[in-house]
Write a structure and sequence with these properties.
Blueprint: H1 4-18, H2 25-38
Length: 43
């Protein structure tokens, strides 16, 4: 479990990246999946 402040900072960063309004949600999701798979995390 992350400390509360670290978790809040990460959540803020994640929300800024996901809800940027520049890239559509489907493309954002595909980028997230590709990045996760590149580092060895598989669904």
């Amino acid at each position: 479990m992350m400390p509360k402040q670290v978790n809040q900072s990460f959540a803020g960063f994640r929300n800024a990246v996901v809800d940027n309004g520049i890239i559509d949600p489907k493309t954002t999701f595909m980028i997230q999946m590709g990045a996760a798979m590149a580092v060895g995390c598989y669904p």
